[in-house]
Design goal:
26% of the residues lie in helices and 25% in strands. The protein has 386 residues and is α/β, with parallel strands linked by helices. Helix 2 runs parallel beside helix 4 and helix 2 runs parallel beside helix 7. The relative contact order is 0.14. Bound molecules: flavin-adenine dinucleotide.
């Protein structure tokens, strides 16, 4: 979801705009500070600004390692913003409940003291070790870095929605065929067909049925079978709404379509009863999930297992010394793809990286509560105790 495109999320949009502004200013600072021949020389580059990449900034910051952070999306937050900005998360330690968006905004506030430079809307496409031990990192927009350490926090990789296969339908992509809802208001008062059986399909179907600013004229949920992967409460609610004739459930698959004057006017649905029916519509919303595409990360010579980057559990380092992998992208015995696991990994990876950035320095564990040095890097007052 692009929060800038959604007028409902002004607060978040402001926060993200701040990030954009800060990132541009910081990039200018970098040009003064540590850019040689157009290459940014730095201690750490983080690939991915999901929750774990953001927290990596914090853990590096405590060790006085300044980071640059790159994401192919135009905004930070990874899956939390892209997939479930308004859903509640209940298992962040000491935060009883927060939404994906609130978690992202809290992380952005928490890392603000460290002035990380954001490079958004660009994919890291190249990573190569240099003779001096540093890494050359390049993005799709031509930003280049020479860095002592790299943190791969790429999650499930670049987000690629699974598409609906029907010859010729692609031409309606982003006009009448959608794989994401960026602006729910554009569907208000429309006749919608929503395809899929997971949480996204059910959530959006329920959202567009309920009275409010996004209410559609009609909603048909189309799934290939009468069984759903979505949360049971959503399925129950959907069936109640169907019983009340507020929406309709169809089982079958899209096998074709009709167009008139360049517009998609009807899809053909082959039902499980063998009958093909024409279903008129204004917009087709398809939620088949994301297919994880590691993208360029797969080509950097890192040890991989089942499309994930193999790491140790002491430093979360890959088979290449100086390259760490944290969050959903990594794999090790017992790995659980949870945000809290990623936060732990980020802390240990930062300590692992300190050995490359400060080879002559002994790194001690300090508490943020009591360490005047950490208070200084955090920019807070040291408390005075009686
Ligand atoms: P991501 O959030 O996936 O972020 C990775 C970022 O890297 C993305 O922004 C991507 O664009 C970027 N990227 C990838 N490759 C490149 C590249 N080459 N160049 C530049 N950028 C790149 N977890 C919980 O702990 N609790 C929950 O309640 C919970 N609920 C969830 C609900 C849903 C519906 C989903 C889908 C997930 C949920 N999760 C939950 C899982 C949680 O969101 C993930 O564990 C978490 O987002 C992983 O964070 P990450 O930073 O590792 O990766």
């Amino acid at each position: 979801m692009n929060s800038k495109a959604n007028p409902q999320v002004t607060d978040t949009a402001r926060t993200h705009d701040d990030i954009h502004d800060r990132s541009h200013n910081d990039i200018r600072d970098d040009i003064r500070d540590d850019v040689r021949d157009g290459v940014i020389e730095t201690d750490a580059v983080i690939v991915g600004a999901g929750p774990v990449g953001l927290f990596q900034v914090f853990e590096l910051g405590l060790l006085e390692i300044k980071a640059h952070i790159v994401d192919s999306l135009a905004y930070p937050g990874g899956q939390c913003i892209e997939l479930y900005p308004d859903k509640p998360i209940y298992d962040i330690p000491a935060v009883p409940v927060c939404t994906g968006r609130e978690l992202t905004d809290s992380l952005l506030a928490q890392i603000a003291p460290f002035g990380a430079t954001f490079h958004l809307g660009q994919e890291v496409s190249e990573l190569q070790r240099q003779d001096d031990g540093r890494f050359h990192v390049a993005t799709s927009k031509g930003t280049r870095f020479l860095t002592k350490t790299v943190f791969i926090a790429g999650g499930v990789g670049s987000f690629q929605p699974r598409t609906l296969k029907a010859d010729g339908l692609d031409k309606f992509h982003d006009t009448q065929l959608f794989y994401r809802v960026r602006n729910p208001q554009q569907f208000a008062g429309k006749n919608l067909v929503i395809v899929g059986g997971g949480d996204s399909a059910l959530d959006w179907a329920l959202n567009f049925v309920q009275p409010g600013p996004h209410k559609a004229e009609s909603v048909i949920l189309l799934h290939r079978r009468d069984g759903f992967r979505a949360a049971p409460a959503s399925v129950t609610r959907m069936r109640e709404l169907c019983d009340a004739y507020e929406m309709q459930l169809m089982t079958g698959q899209v096998t074709g379509f009709d167009e008139a004057d360049g517009r998609l006017v009807r899809i053909k649905v082959s039902g499980n009863d063998g009958v093909t029916r024409g279903v008129p519509l204004d917009a087709l919303l398809v939620f088949f999930g994301l297919s994880p595409k590691l993208g360029p990360i797969a080509e950097w010579g890192l040890g991989l297992e089942r499309k994930q980057v193999v790491v140790d559990t002491e430093k979360f380092q890959t088979n290449v010394p100086g390259i760490f992998a944290v969050g959903d992208i990594n794999i090790y015995p017992g790995k659980k793809k949870l945000i809290l696991s990623g936060f732990h990994e980020a802390a240990l990876a930062a300590f692992g990286a300190a050995a490359y950035v400060f080879p002559d320095k002994r790194i001690l564990l300090q508490y943020t509560t009591t360490s005047p040095k950490l208070h200084k890097v955090l920019g807070v007052e040291s408390p005075v105790f009686d």
